[in-house]
Amino acid sequence: MGFDFSSIEEYVAGHIKVFIFMIIGLIVFVGIVAVSVFFVAVTGEEQTMVPDVVGKELTEALLELQVKELYPRLQLRYSQTSLDKGLILEQEPLPGTIVKAGRRIRLVVSQGVVLNRVENYVSRNIDEVRLELNSINASGGLPLVTIREPIMYEFSSETPGVILAQRPEAGADISGPTSLEFVVSMGRANQNVTVPQLTGLPLDTALNLISSSGINFEFITRERRGDEAGEVVVFQSPEANNTIPQNSTVQITLTQPESLEDNEVFGLFLYTIPPNPYPLEVRLDAALPTGERQRIISVNYPGGNFTVPYKLPAGTVLILSMMNRELYREVVGE
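The chain above was modelled as a monomer; its predicted structure follows.
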């Protein structure tokens, strides 16, 4: 009886096919695992460092977290002062902590101060107190603490604007809307100033000297005469080195420019500022057509006619501000 070689060949061929299928299956399985590991690694959460946002405005803090792919969880808290309203008081995790992207960061945001007693405002500047109370009342609803107008002013040795007395006094309970009465310093009575030497100075130099001298001033302009230079002070009254009362006005005459470039305008800015009990910071800025901003003059001014010569490109916007609050603007050349 002989061997059936055809059966053996079929048997071997069958096992070879099974072996080949197993190898192919193993290769496919390893490939699938490798691809899966790759995508898990690519799409997995990256690590990032928590930024330091304590003391920053909420909007700035949110932008920094967004860059790091972190998300905020906000908590509100009253604090001891209204000056930190809207600022980040605390954060968790702490700055420098390494976390996974997508982590939520707890931010404690200041709601400002909640008033239940009258604060001590004596010796503080009335304008700073006004801004602080406006910030507290800006949250909406009925204002809790307001300043009674008109404010009482009196001469004193204190700096102008300093609160001398208040009613209700510090520590009084606040049970409802409260109106504060203030007595504010006007500075010393009959203060004098020395008139600076302005005649012969070019406009820019004269404006800088006026800013630091404490005088009230009023400009007029006229055409040049003879060999006079343009944009130069040719007359002042009172003359230099005279001692005058602080509320007196120095009249200043300026010559017009010798020439103007194309699209350039020379003029005299004029605005009547309501009278103040003491000089307040007044600024005149120029927003040029190029987008640049230029300071023309910054001076403490009590009110009245505010006159300043200018030579600027047509289309420049002149902006008058008092205590960082815009009063008036006009476009040069219109």
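The helical segments are 5-43, 58-67, 126-137, 203-213.
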